[in-house]
What does this fold into?
Amino acid sequence: MFSFLRKQFVDVIEWLEQPGELAWRVPFEDREIQNGAQLTVREGQVAVFVNEGCVADFFEAGLHTLNTANLPVLTNLMNWDKGFKSPFKSDVVFLSRKEQHGLKWGTAQPVTVRDAEFGALRIRAFGSYSFRVAELEPFVSRVVGTLQGVSATSLEPQLRAAIQTAIATALGGSGIAFLDLAANQQALSDRIKAEVDKAFAQWGLECLSFYVESVSLPEEVQAHLDKGTSMRVLGDLGQYTRFQAAEAIEQAAGADGGVAGIGAGVAAATALSGAMSAGLGAVASAAPASAEEDPIATIEKLHKLVTIGALSQQEFDAKKAELLSRIR
It folds into this structure.
C-alpha cells in the first residue's frame, strides 16, 4: 500500500554527486517515473533518459518538468500519444561532466623503445592526468550500460592500460634520445596526451591534462650508465689516480699508528697507481728508482698532507726533523 501511495506523488529527481563519481542510475520503483516529475540538473551534470539500453533524451543544467511534450524522442520510441498520463517506463542516469583530476599513472612493466643513442632501452615512466566525460552516448552505452553507478576509481585500471599503450607508441616514434627526455618533457607529455586522447575517445572520455613527471631506466641499466658518467666526469685518469692515492693516505693517517700508518697508506697508494697504469697500458720506461728517496721531496709530500688535514702539525714536525737529520 505504501509503495502504491508513494507512486501517486510527483517525483523530485536530483543528484548530489561525491568526488570521483561519474554516473548514477536513479533507483525508481519498477523503473516508473511519474508524468510531470521535477528534474533538477546542476552545473557540470547531464541527466540522460535511457530506454532499453539506448539513449532517448538528455537534459542539461536547469529545472525541468517531465511530460510527453518535452520528451519527443522517448515518446516516439514508446509510441505514446500526447495525452498519455501513465508513468514513464524508463531509466534516468545522471552523468558528471566535471574534471576528474589528480589521477596517477605509471608503467607496470618497463616499455622497450629504440633509443637513438643507446639502441634498445627498457624505460619506466610515471606521472599524473585528468579526464572528463565528453561524449554522452558512447559513455552510456560502452561504460555505464546497466550498472547502478560508475566511478573514476573503477575505470582507472582500464585507463592506465590505455595510457601504457599510448606511451609505447609515443616514445617509439618520438626520436628523442633518452638523455634528452628531461629537456623535452613538455613536448613528450603533449605527444603522449595526443595518443591518450585517441584511446579515451572510444569510451566517450576526454583527456584534459597529462604530465610526465619521471622517466627512468631499470636499476641495473642505470648503474652502468652512472659508471660511464663517472668516467666522463673524471676525465684525466692521472688526476683520478692521484685522488685515489690521497684518499688512501688520509684513511691511513686517521687509523692507529700515526706516521707509520702514513707509510702503509703511501705504499697502498703507490700499488694502486701502478695497477691502474699497468691496466691502461700507460706504463712508460723509467729510470731505476734510487735506493732512498730524496728527504726534501719527502718533506714536501708530507707538507701537502698537512695542508689537506691528513697529517697533524706535530707529526709533520717530528718526521721533518728526522728527515733533515739524514742530510749531511
Confidence is low (pLDDT under 50) at residues 4-10, 80-85, 282-291. Residues 259-280 form the longest helix (22 residues). The chain has ten helices and 14 strands.
